[in-house]
Amino acid sequence: MTDYQTVTSTDATTGRTSSIKLHGPDGFAGMRAAGRLAAHILDELVPHVVPGVTTQELDDIVYRMTIDGGGVPATLGYRGYTKSCCTSINHVVCHGIPGDRMLKDGDIVNIDVTPIVDGWHGDSSRMYLVGDVSVKARRLVDVTYEALMRGIAAARPGNHLGDISHAIQSLAEGHRYGVVRDFCGHGVGQTFHDAPEVVHVGRPGTGPELRPGMFFTIEPMINIGKPAVKVLEDGWTAVTRDRSLSAQFEHSIGITEDGCEIFTKSLKGLDAPPYSL
Ligand code: MF3
Ligand code: CO
Ligand code: CO
């Protein structure tokens, strides 16, 4: 059963059309529940992200908490991916695969979770600081979070997707950081990766006009160095080509009548470090 309308948008550069869903109250309720579980998992991970823990141990915690919270990890079995989250350390941009790697003092790590609850996908990620982190890395993390929030501030009816992209790009490039082009945010809901593509660089007033009921993620990846990335042999792990540090935050949001609702906001004020418990 479909309980949404759609609007058709045409990509200005490719000319391809895609249809963007406009969800109603049921969608908002579904995303609220899924987003709340994603936020809860990211909140509860805080005390576990310490020197000596392996990324597999973190994945085990994510799996357990997802199931206990009444969800299923969307990444498990997704296109051959076999883990419950992504753990992207230092120069890893995104899609780092949990494994034997131990976190060490000074690392920065992104943990990205996507629980499915009653068919709805709550997609969110945060950066965590492991022990004592350099000022340079902390600054990158702070600016990346601010970039996400500036993007979210531009997410309201009447604005265009390009206004979000532009807000992110201008802040990041103002700090002389590189904004990753190869990965983007996406429509989200009962589908994990849906239209539209939410790119993190762009010009104001371009792209589809935002309408109440649109659900999508914003998930800027920002590098201290150049934007270029490459994917490793494992087919997933994306790293900066210049090996510079990279950071990312992600929220799932829904456009409302007068702005947007963040479905994945922390329940404990732990949206960005420092996470003083
Ligand atoms: N959660 C990621 C996103 O933000 C997608 C991860 S897909 C995986 O879209 F297979 F790499 F886990
Ligand atoms: Co996402
Ligand atoms: Co994600």
Can you lay out the helices and strands and say which pair or pack?
Layout lengths: L3 E7 L6 E7 L1 H21 L9 H14 L3 E2 L11 E5 L2 E3 L13 E6 L1 E3 L2 E2 L2 E6 L5 H19 L7 H14 L3 E2 L5 E3 L6 E5 L16 E4 L2 E3 L5 E3 L6 E3 L5 E3 L2 E5 L4 E3 L15
Helix pairs in contact: 1-2, 3-4
Bound molecules: 2-amino-4-trifluoromethylsulfanyl-butyric acid (MF3) and cobalt (II) ion (CO) (2 copies).
One cobalt (II) ion binds next to loops.
Compose a concise summary of this entry.
The chain has 277 residues and is an alpha+beta fold. It has helices at residues 25-45, 55-68, 135-153, 161-174, and strands at 4-10, 17-23, 72-73, 85-89, 92-94, 108-113, 115-117, 120-121, 124-129, 178-179, 185-187, 194-198, 215-218, 221-223, 229-231, 238-240, 246-248, 251-255, 260-262.
Task: Walk me through the structure.
The chain is of the alpha+beta class and 277 residues long. It has helices at 25-45, 55-68, 135-153, 161-174; strands at residues 4-10, 17-23, 72-73, 85-89, 92-94, 108-113, 115-117, 120-121, 124-129, 178-179, 185-187, 194-198, 215-218, 221-223, 229-231, 238-240, 246-248, 251-255, 260-262. Strands 3-7-8 form a 3-stranded antiparallel beta sheet, covered by helices on one side. Strands 4-6-9 form a 3-stranded antiparallel beta sheet. It has a 3-stranded antiparallel beta sheet with strand order 5-16-15, with no helix packed on it. α1 (25-45) packs across α2 (55-68) and α3 packs antiparallel against α4 (161-174). It is globular, with a radius of gyration of 17 Å. The chain starts with a strand and ends in a 15-residue tail after the last strand. The model has no long low-confidence stretch (mean pLDDT 97). The site of one cobalt (II) ion has 5 residues, from loops. 2-amino-4-trifluoromethylsulfanyl-butyric acid binds next to loops.
